[in-house]
């Protein structure tokens, strides 16, 4: 190899080595950036709050109840006073067998102007208006006969009027001020009749087909049993007895005067029943919220892990490229040493020639 060629080769190798070193620096910088990204992702993982499932104990409480005849009473608060008495509040529940309750409805048929409504062959009549003749008997021509009214005597008709006045009060109180229509249905087992009520505006606003048959649901009501509640607040002057374990076992509630003050010597003692009650609806709501948060948490974890995998794959590729550059640089250095020796040998030969 000639002197000029050797020097040109050496310069080319030097330039290539510089390029390899520069590319290696760039790769190391990229790997540093990826390392920082990966660290940030791991910090995000460490900073995430892991959802915790709700404990049923958090939605379970101790409940004290006492019976007073047909009334079941559940204590909602007990506040100790300085004189040793308690101020209590409680909710009383009882079964009212004379209440208006929802009932299953049948298809209602209406005439064109929505002035007459029928269920089957029975015409619904306005509640509280029973047409009668001068003798006090039901007039079949005045409002459409039905089998129930036909079976009643004059005295029974009079009694029914009073009952329907009470029905109307109950319906208006619970379902709103309106006119109500009624039909009576016979129980084939007992032979007794039960009233079924319809709100007039519900009948008028319902959807009907071409034949006048109802196509939408129409609310219907009847007389039945219903659990009713009433809250008694801040009953003062009560005494509560505990057993040796500190559990409440008896409560004494006094009578009160017109001013609401307890009357001495009038207390009635009731046995307390202790039980635990779980608010299942609240617990299920909390569990649903936990499941939703857990889903979001798992999604976030999966997304971060996917990003980390991408960073790791990119870093692996850069690492492999860096190893290739190291190998290439070693080869260049080896070749540069060989060329350098050739140059030195040529230089030495030249000096000998002209020496």
What is the percentage of strand-forming residues?
25-35%
Total number of β-strand segments?
Answer: 13
Low-confidence segments: 133-141
Question: Can you count the helices?
Answer: 6
Structural class designation: alpha+beta
Arithmetic mean of pLDDT? 87
SSE string, helices as H and strands as E: HEEEEEEEHHHEEHEEEEH
Task: Describe the protein in words.
It is a single chain. The chain is of the alpha+beta class and 355 residues long. Among the domains are: 3-54 and 305-353; 106-218, no CATH class. Helix content is 44%, strand content 28%. The protein is built from six helices and 13 strands. The strands form two sheets. Strands 1, 2, 3, 7, 8, 9, 10, 11, 12 and 13 form a ten-stranded antiparallel β-sheet that branches. Strands 4-5-6 form a three-stranded antiparallel β-sheet, with no helix packed on it. The protein is elongated and about 155 Å long. The model is unreliable at 133-141 (pLDDT under 50).
Provide a concise account of the structure shown.
The chain is an alpha+beta fold.
Write the layout of secondary structure elements.
Blueprint lengths: L2 H45 L12 E9 L2 E10 L5 E18 L5 E2 L6 E3 L2 E2 L1 E2 L13 H4 L3 H4 L3 H22 L4 E7 L6 E7 H6 L14 E23 L5 E6 L14 E4 L1 E6 L1 H74 L2
Record keyword descriptors for this entry:
355 residues; alpha+beta; 10-stranded antiparallel β-sheet; 3-stranded antiparallel β-sheet; 6 helices; 13 strands; 44% helix; 28% strand
């Amino acid at each position: 190899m000639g002197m000029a060629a050797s020097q040109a080769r050496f310069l080319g190798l030097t330039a290539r080595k510089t390029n390899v070193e520069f590319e290696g620096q760039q790769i190391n910088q990229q790997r540093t950036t990826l390392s920082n990204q990966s660290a940030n992702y791991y910090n995000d993982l460490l900073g995430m709050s892991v959802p915790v499932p709700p404990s049923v104990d958090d939605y379970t409480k101790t409940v004290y109840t006492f019976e007073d005849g047909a009334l079941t009473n559940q204590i909602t608060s007990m506040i100790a006073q300085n004189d040793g008495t308690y101020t209590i509040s409680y909710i009383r529940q009882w079964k009212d067998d004379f209440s208006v309750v929802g009932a299953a409805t049948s298809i209602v048929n209406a005439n064109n102007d929505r002035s007459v409504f029928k269920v089957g062959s029975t015409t619904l009549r306005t509640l509280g208006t029973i047409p009668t003749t001068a003798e006090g008997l039901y007039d079949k021509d005045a409002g459409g006969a039905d089998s129930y009214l036909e079976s009643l005597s004059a005295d029974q008709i009079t009694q029914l009027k009073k009952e329907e006045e009470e029905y109307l009060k109950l319906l208006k109180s619970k379902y709103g001020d309106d006119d109500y229509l009624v039909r009576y249905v016979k129980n084939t087992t007992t032979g007794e009749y039960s009233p079924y009520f319809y709100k007039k505006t519900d009948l008028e606003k319902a959807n009907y087909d071409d034949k006048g048959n109802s196509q939408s649901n129409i609310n219907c009501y009847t007389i039945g049993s219903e659990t009713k509640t009433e809250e008694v607040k801040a009953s003062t002057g009560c005494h509560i007895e505990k057993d040796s374990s500190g559990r409440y076992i008896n409560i004494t509630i006094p009578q009160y005067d017109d001013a609401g003050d307890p009357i001495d010597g009038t207390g009635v003692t009731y046995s307390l029943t202790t039980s635990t009650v779980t608010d299942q609806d609240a617990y299920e709501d909390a569990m649903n919220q936990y499941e939703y948060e857990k889903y979001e948490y798992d999604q976030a974890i999966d997304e971060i892990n996917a990003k980390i995998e991408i960073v790791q794959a990119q870093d692996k590729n850069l690492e492999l490229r860096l190893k290739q550059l190291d190998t290439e640089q070693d080869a260049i250095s080896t070749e540069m040493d060989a060329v350098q020796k050739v140059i030195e040998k040529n230089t030495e030969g030249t000096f000998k020639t002209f020496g």
